[in-house]
Amino acid sequence: MLSTEEKTQAVVAALEDVKALDISVIDTSKLSPLFDRMVVASAQSTRQTKALASSVVVKLKELGATVYSTEGEDSGEWVLVDLGEVIVHIMQPAVRAYYNLEELWGVQPKLRANSGK
């Protein structure tokens, strides 16, 4: 069974594999009883948003983690992957700017990657 930190690292790696932009990790353990980490990443197209979500799902399943659900693949503007204690939001830049989850949660995220390299 993966720890929260191992799941988070695997999510970030899966996002980096498909060139996600502006990946941030927010520690929500003291803010919500529902999950301990929120990972937010940007994608440049609906195709990339879906590919990023798929990469996260495949990688985490390979590691034995449970993927509880994915939402939003139909539109591809914002896809949520629920891994239990780790929640992943993959968003188009305009959607991400509009909802500004980092500010909504009132935290400064730890940036893991700033570019698609």
From TrEMBL:
GO terms for molecular function: ribosomal large subunit binding. It is found in: Cytoplasm. Gene3D superfamilies: Beta Polymerase, domain 2 (3.30.460.10). Its main location: cytoplasm. One of its GO terms (cellular component) is cytoplasm. One of its GO terms (biological process) is cytosolic ribosome assembly. Keywords: Cytoplasm, Repressor, Translation regulation. It holds the Pfam family RsfS. It comes from the Bacteria. InterPro entries: Iojap/RsfS/C7orf30, NT_sf. NCBIfam families: rsfS_iojap_ybeB (TIGR00090). Interacts with ribosomal protein uL14 (rplN). Functions as a ribosomal silencing factor. Interacts with ribosomal protein uL14 (rplN), blocking formation of intersubunit bridge B8. Prevents association of the 30S and 50S ribosomal subunits and the formation of functional ribosomes, thus repressing translation. PANTHER family: IOJAP SUPERFAMILY ORTHOLOG (PTHR21043), MITOCHONDRIAL ASSEMBLY OF RIBOSOMAL LARGE SUBUNIT PROTEIN 1 (PTHR21043:SF0). Belongs to the Iojap/RsfS family. This is Ribosomal silencing factor RsfS. It comes from Sideroxydans lithotrophicus (strain ES-1).
